[in-house]
């Protein structure tokens, strides 16, 4: 399959409308958090796929005609239908990528669905085991789903099954990441985390029975950090709230750093919230292990050179109050993400267990088709 | 009316400011062809590369508004077309919001607009009122809910005004009329709303407003975002009080006659992470543009209106360029630069704090031949290009002290305009400031509307008085009452009374003008002595004579005689005459060479010498 075939497909009006609505929901802050965004992306794709399943009457005619004329027509038709669907989804993915370069989870979901469609493609079925990126997962799980490729009425069925599976995976991802909490956090340890995040909060709460102590460094969103500290403390965790500036000074005493990253990147690097790099740098200096919480939907096949995804400016309010007199003159640089190099991270904790940064490429090739890395 | 419609948040956007603060661009731009350009009209004026209207619609859409009424007083069809194309392009707001464009050419003020809306019954209940110049990222729906809560507590609550608190040194404060607001500390009810003059450092606070409230808040650092949340009672209030012309009129009227109108005002200061500002003049235009570029107004940004398609490439130091723009390798973008589509930047150009915005095909070209020899730098400039011309235009460095300067050296048909700003905020009033007090000497050709009407009224009163031989005391009363109706300054009254006397219709038809003038002056002697008393009023009087003699045909060549008559009736004294004559020379007035005037002053000179000799 060619990696990027031409300028991509034109999407129909209804599809466009769905995307615009989805994008403006995210831009306006109605949808927050990468998990929610991933979920809504999956819903969006499902809707688009089921819309494209009801082709026009003309298309039905063609189908009938071709099935009559060709003896092995069904395979060709399926092939055609699949590649049509692929290019539709890819076009959707491109739109989302352009509109939301900072929300990597959204495009990851597009890649996952694309992979599923490709797997179902009949012409691909014979070639399985050929590609270098062939996954263990597929070898174990896939074969029986291809038992009856000729059943052309249910073309959509496997894809729909996959989407349901994907949704199940998203639903359980937080749980499966947090389930590993007790393996990593031990009694009497001093754990440091940076900023507020839902996943980190769940993870740390799940580790609460270990009776560890937690240092919570405030991120730029001070209010959220305080609220999280209060909730954790109510859940029985021994929390100390510290300023982000104090992290380096405290690091020598810390046993472990737990960070919820925004995305795990191809080379084993990660994107954290603004300020995370300072924390991991300190940890690196003191050789403190850094655990990065990255459920599978955060794994992105991007590399550090694709800067325009990372250089997303945040609202200037997060760095400087408008009330200050400098606000009119100063040029506020308020990045949303910090790039964390791979050597600062000890372990990525995914749904499937811990994996070292050098193994991320393997996970990626299992999740996505190499031809979809570049949407 | 369906019940589901009740909950839809309505917004009224007034698409005109009824001021000519932006006159250079919105007047000289050709009306034709380009829809997305600034045309004759503010709504399509682009700020940081996006038409103003797109920001407004976007923020309304994001803010949970369901139905928007755009009220256009000019160029309605263009707005309509713009809305239509945006809908076709599926702008995000078009999915959730219903946009209605209303046109009316008769409306001259914001008050007229409100009365028109009231008459048409377009608004169902509580609504958001904002101008097209408001840039904000607030959630209108929640604000309106808060306003409804206030209304539940106080049935008389008519309007909640939205303000953004900024630092006192912030240029948004310096470049708007400073606002002083006093409010009840517990309920946020507005007690005093005063737009003071910048040179006035004192504030007067009635004791009453401290005594009758347990806590009073005083604000002096608020930015008016031109956004208000209105109760249904606002429209009838505008309809009943036809002297309300602007929102400030309304605010002041309500505050002064709180008991009579049975309504009160509240205010709300936005949270720290919300942004709101109004573009009122070029200075604020520039400030708001930088704020947008610096991402203060997130989620509104330079991408607004383009379906978030990220057509800009973000470079370091807040430099942005459209994907289709071409940059030479040797050009330098220093900071805060925005380069629009299809723009070409040639060799050795250095650009700082500039928005080069051209959405048209051929775009703006900053040619290398200029920059090579001059190494010229563009600093804090807004370049607008309206014609598709490929001529190289010379942009000469033009940052003048006074703030604004126009350069147009393009050859031939080019309609390019270049507005330069001094980056440093000077304290002097910029020529686009909304103050009309700058008319210290002669009111120049476009006399403001009110004063014109006032002049006409004074002429009418005097003509009638002269014909019917009325008592001058009555005429003075009449003039004074018209003066208060149109809010005319005292020195202007002096000026216009004399002006009116010399423009009474009888004079126009009279065969011997001078005899009639003499007669008129004699008749109106009491009026003259009432108004023309002090030295400064005498100067006003003389300026009026000057203008009358320039403007009125029937007085042509008779300035000297009229002055002589005034001198004889002791209205003007010799010193003032001499001083005025010197002024005339300085200003190179067209009168200076009139023989009658020259003769009169020769005579005056002789007369004074004679009198000195006789002493």
Quick recap:
Chain A: This is Translation initiation factor eIF2B subunit beta. Chain A: One of its GO terms (molecular function) is translation initiation factor activity. The complex is a heterodimer of chains A (375) and B (615). With 375 residues, chain A is of the alpha/beta class.
Strands of the biggest beta sheet of chain B: in what spatial order? Answer: 5-4-1-6-12-8-13
Net shape of chain A = globular
Query: What coarse outline of chain B follows from CA principal-axis ratios?
Result: globular
Tally of helical segments of chain A = 14
* Structural class category of chain B: alpha/beta
The count of helical stretches of chain B stands at: 24
Order of helices and strands of chain A: HHHHHHHHHEHEHEHEEEHEEEEH
Strand count, sense and barrel status of the largest sheet of chain B are: 7 strands, mixed
The overall average pLDDT of chain B, rounded, is 73
Give the CATH superfamily of the largest domain in chain B: Spore Coat Polysaccharide Biosynthesis Protein SpsA, Chain A
CATH top-level class of the largest domain in chain B: Alpha Beta
CATH domain class name of the largest domain in chain A: Alpha Beta
- Give the distance, in angstroms, between the N- and C-terminal Cα atoms of chain A: 13 Å
Rg of chain B is 29 Å
Structural class by helix and strand composition of chain A: alpha/beta
Instruction: State the domain count of chain B.
Output: 3
Give the name of the CATH superfamily of the largest domain in chain A: Translation initiation factor eif-2b, domain 2
Largest interface: A-B, 31 and 36 residues
Family (chain A): Belongs to the eIF-2B alpha/beta/delta subunits family.
GO molecular function (chain A): guanyl-nucleotide exchange factor activity; translation initiation factor activity
Subcellular location (chain A): Cytoplasm, Cytosol
Keywords (chain A): Cytoplasm, Initiation factor, Protein biosynthesis
């Amino acid at each position: 399959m060619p990696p990027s075939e031409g300028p991509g497909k034109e999407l129909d009006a209804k599809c466009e409308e769905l995307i615009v609505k989805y994008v403006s929901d995210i831009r306006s802050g109605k949808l927050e958090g990468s998990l929610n965004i991933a979920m809504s992306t999956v819903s969006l794709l499902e809707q688009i796929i089921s819309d494209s399943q009801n082709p026009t009457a003309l298309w039905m005619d063609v189908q009938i005609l071709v099935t009559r004329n060709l003896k092995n027509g069904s395979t060709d038709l399926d092939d055609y239908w699949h590649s049509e669907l692929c290019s539709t989804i890819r076009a959707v993915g491109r739109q989302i990528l352009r509109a939301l370069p900072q929300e990597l989870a959204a495009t990851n979901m597009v890649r996952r669905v694309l992979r599923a469609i490709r797997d179902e493609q009949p012409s691909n079925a014979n070639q399985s085991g050929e590609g270098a990126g062939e996954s263990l997962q597929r070898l174990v799980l896939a074969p029986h789903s291809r038992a009856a490729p000729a059943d052309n009425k249910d073309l959509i069925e496997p894809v729909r099954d996959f989407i349901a599976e994907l949704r199940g995976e998203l639903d359980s991802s937080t749980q499966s990441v947090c389930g590993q909490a007790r393996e990593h956090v031990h009694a009497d340890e001093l754990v440091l985390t940076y900023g507020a995040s839902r996943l980190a909060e769940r993870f740390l709460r799940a580790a609460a029975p270990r009776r560890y102590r937690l240092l919570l460094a405030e991120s730029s969103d001070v209010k959220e950090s305080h609220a999280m500290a209060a909730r954790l403390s109510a859940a029985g965790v021994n929390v100390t709230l510290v300023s982000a500036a104090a992290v380096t000074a405290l690091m020598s005493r810390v046993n472990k750093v737990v960070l919820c990253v925004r995305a795990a990147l191809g080379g084993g690097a990660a994107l954290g919230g603004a300020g995370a790099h300072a924390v991991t740098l300190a940890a690196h200096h003191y050789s403190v292990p850094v655990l990065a919480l990255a459920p599978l939907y955060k794994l992105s096949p991007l590399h550090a050179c694709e800067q325009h995804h990372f250089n997303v400016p945040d609202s200037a309010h997060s760095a400087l109050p408008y009330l200050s007199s400098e606000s009119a003159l100063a040029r506020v640089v308020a990045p949303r993400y910090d790039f964390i190099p791979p050597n600062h991270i000890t372990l990525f904790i995914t749904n499937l267990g811990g994996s070292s940064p050098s193994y991320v490429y393997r996970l990626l090739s299992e999740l996505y088709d190499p031809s979809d890395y570049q949407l | 009316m369906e019940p589901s419609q009740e909950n839809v948040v309505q917004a009224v956007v007034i698409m005109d400011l009824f001021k000519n603060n932006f006159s250079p661009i919105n007047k000289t731009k050709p009306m034709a062809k380009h829809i997305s350009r600034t045309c004759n009209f503010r709504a399509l004026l682009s700020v940081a590369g996006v038409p103003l209207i797109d920001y407004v619609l976007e923020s309304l859409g994001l803010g949970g508004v369901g139905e928007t009424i755009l009220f256009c007083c000019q160029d309605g069809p263009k707005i309509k077309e713009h809305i239509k194309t945006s809908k076709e392009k599926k702008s995000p707001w078009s999915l959730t919001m219903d946009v209605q464009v209303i046109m009316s050419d008769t409306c001259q003020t914001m008050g007229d607009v409100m009365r028109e809306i009231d008459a048409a019954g377009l608004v169902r209940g509580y609504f958001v009122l904002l101008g097209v110049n408001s840039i904000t990222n607030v959630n209108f729906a929640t604000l309106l809910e808060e306003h409804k809560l206030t209304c539940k507590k106080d049935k008389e609550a008519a309007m909640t005004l939205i303000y953004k608190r900024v630092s006192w040194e912030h240029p948004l404060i310096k470049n708007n009329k400073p606002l002083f607001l006093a409010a009840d500390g517990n309920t946020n009810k507005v007690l005093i709303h005063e737009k003071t003059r910048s040179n006035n450092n004192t504030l007067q606070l009635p004791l009453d407003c401290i005594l009758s409230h347990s806590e009073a808040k005083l604000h002096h650092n608020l930015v008016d975002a031109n956004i208000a949340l209105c109760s249904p009672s606002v429209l009838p209030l505008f309809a009943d009080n036809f002297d309300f012309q602007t929102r400030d009129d309304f605010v002041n009227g309500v505050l002064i006659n709180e008991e009579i109108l049975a309504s009160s005002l509240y205010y709300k200061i936005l949270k720290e992470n919300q942004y709101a500002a109004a573009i009122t003049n070029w200075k604020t235009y520039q400030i708001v543009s930088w704020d947008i570029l610096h991402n203060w107004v997130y989620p509104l940004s330079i991408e607004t209106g383009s379906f978030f398609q990220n057509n800009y490439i973000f470079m370091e130091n807040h430099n942005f360029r459209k994907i289709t723009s071409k940059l030479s390798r040797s050009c330098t973008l220093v900071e805060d630069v925005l380069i629009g589509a299809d723009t070409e930047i040639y060799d050795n150009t250095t650009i700082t704090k500039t928005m080069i915005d051209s959405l048209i095909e051929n775009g703006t070209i900053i040619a290398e031949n200029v920059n090579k020899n001059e190494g010229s730098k563009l600093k804090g400039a807004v370049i607008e290009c309206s014609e598709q011309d490929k001529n190289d235009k010379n942009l000469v460095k033009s940052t003048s002290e006074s703030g604004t300067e126009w350069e147009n050296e393009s050859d031939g048909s080019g309609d390019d305009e270049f507005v330069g700003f001094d980056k440093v905020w000077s304290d002097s009033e910029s020529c686009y400031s909304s103050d009309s007090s700058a008319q210290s000497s002669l009111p120049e050709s476009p006399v403001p509307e009110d004063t014109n009407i006032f002049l006409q009224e004074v002429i009418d009163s005097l003509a009638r008085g002269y014909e019917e031989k009325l008592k001058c005391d009555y005429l003075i009363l009449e003039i004074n009452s018209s003066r208060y109706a149109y809010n005319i300054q005292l020195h202007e009254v002096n000026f216009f009374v004399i002006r009116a006397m010399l423009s009474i219709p009888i004079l126009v038809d009279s065969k011997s003008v001078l005899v009639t003038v003499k007669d008129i002056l004699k008749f109106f002697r009491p009026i003259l002595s009432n108004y023309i008393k002090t030295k400064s009023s005498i100067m006003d009087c003389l300026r009026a004579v000057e203008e009358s003699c320039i403007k009125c045909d029937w007085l042509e060549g008779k300035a000297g005689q009229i002055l002589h008559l005034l001198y004889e009736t002791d209205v003007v004294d010799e010193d003032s005459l001499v001083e005025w004559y010197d002024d005339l020379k300085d200003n190179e007035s067209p009168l200076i060479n009139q023989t009658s005037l020259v003769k009169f002053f020769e005579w005056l000179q002789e007369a004074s010498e004679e009198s000195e000799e006789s002493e």
